[in-house]
Design a protein that fits this description.
four-stranded mixed sheet, Rossmann fold, 16 helices, alpha/beta, single chain
């Protein structure tokens, strides 16, 4: 597994391993499924660590913490090649030159898989510079045997731009959670907020998450169902002033919306366990970490009809088009007079059957074994 970027605020590699919980949990899931996992991670200093069944090699090279797409990252590539991998997994579509350099460095029989994390946008645009960028991206990613997204439909913009061509596209959810629900009565008492239903928003107050459309929808819901309550947990307040102004201008919202602000990750289980419904207005997501956590605790998803959310929530979700406040209000209202106990049980069942770390580890390793077999056959025929 190759990570080209890192957070420069982390003082040492042990702090990185503590902070990057998804990274270490993903490695544990693949190890539990039967893989021998080795992570090569760019960082500010060289180091070697072993955590659980995974070896971590930290490589410093003087490049920026998030390198440009054109960076070949020689020291990182050399460290990967030295480990003689059976398969190389690259995190993020933002490093096409790295993918190309890895293809040259590793054995011909070694497949390369690149996993999308929604960290970069498709390099669209007009003019010679945009065309050059697309050509560089296409050249780099063409070295990959497969590119994985949470949902196959997420690959379409990259195909439309001519960047992804013959590579296999894998539908693999990128993350899960080990979060467990706490007793509901205790959780409600702990957070001090209640509603019938209690609707939970977890996300940044930014345009992509579209909190203003959500508030417009919820105002209509409360008009019909006065006992409903919305709690908004957020840690990026880019649109906080707009959100507060919108709430302040509506007597219905003032009495039915609680702006919680930032909550530690350890405390989030109480909020998920106390609520009935998870609400999101996102226009685009690589997957949906908060959605996955909420489903682990049984919240009914009322989320936008974007590919990643549809892949995650499946038949348990109620979906509405982004920016459509009326459709959001209709979906929420349909839950307000229902006993949600059976729906919550179905959501937890879907999490166990489709979204747990065990399922993700098993499915990813099955897909990667197929890539190894295909690459070996191609190499043998040359």
């Amino acid at each position: 597994m190759v990570n080209a970027a890192y957070d420069p605020s982390l003082p040492d590699c042990d702090d990185l391993l503590e902070r990057y919980e998804t990274l270490t949990d993903w490695c544990d899931a693949l190890s539990d499924a039967g893989a021998d996992v080795h992570v090569v991670q760019r960082f500010a200093a060289d180091a070697v660590r072993r955590r659980g069944s995974t070896d971590f090699t930290f490589v410093a090279d003087g490049a920026p913490p998030t390198p440009p797409p054109t960076a070949g990252l020689r020291r990182l590539v050399d460290a990967v090649s030295a480990s003689r991998p059976a398969l190389v997994h690259v995190n993020g579509l933002g490093f096409p030159a790295l993918v190309s350099a890895l293809r040259v460095a590793v054995a011909l029989s070694t497949p390369l898989a690149v996993q999308d994390h929604a960290g970069v946008r498709v390099p669209n645009g007009r003019g010679p510079l945009a065309a050059w960028r697309r050509a560089r991206w296409r050249s780099g990613l063409s070295a990959a045997d497969a590119i994985s997204f949470s949902a196959v439909d997420q690959a379409q913009p990259w195909r439309d731009a001519g960047i992804i061509a013959d590579q296999r596209v894998l539908a693999l959810i990128e993350s899960s959670t080990r979060m467990q629900p706490s007793p509901r009565d205790q959780a409600i008492a702990r957070i001090g907020v209640s509603g019938r239903p209690l609707v939970l928003w977890v996300g940044r107050l930014v345009r992509n998450k579209d909190p203003l459309t959500v508030l417009a929808a919820f105002e209509e819901v409360v008009r019909r169902h006065p006992s409903a309550h919305l709690a908004m947990v957020f840690h990026d307040g880019t649109l906080e002033r707009d959100v507060r102004d919108t709430i302040g201008a509506s007597s219905l919202l003032r009495s039915s919306v609680t702006l919680v602000g930032s909550v530690s990750h350890d405390a989030m289980a109480h909020w998920y366990s106390a609520a009935d419904v998870f609400l999101s207005g996102s226009h685009a997501e690589g997957s949906g970490y908060a959605l996955i956590e909420s489903m682990a605790c049984g919240l009914v998803p009322v989320v936008t009809a974007i590919p990643s959310f549809q892949a995650i929530a499946g038949s348990c979700g109620l979906f509405w088009p982004p920016e459509d406040a009326a459709a959001c209000a209709s979906a929420l209202s349909s839950l307000c007079d229902r006993d949600l106990a059976s729906a919550r049980s179905a959501v937890r069942g879907r999490f166990r059957g489709e979204l747990s770390w065990k399922v993700i580890g098993d499915r990813t390793l099955t897909a990667y074994r197929s890539l190894v077999a295909d690459r070996a056959q191609k190499a043998a025929s040359r």
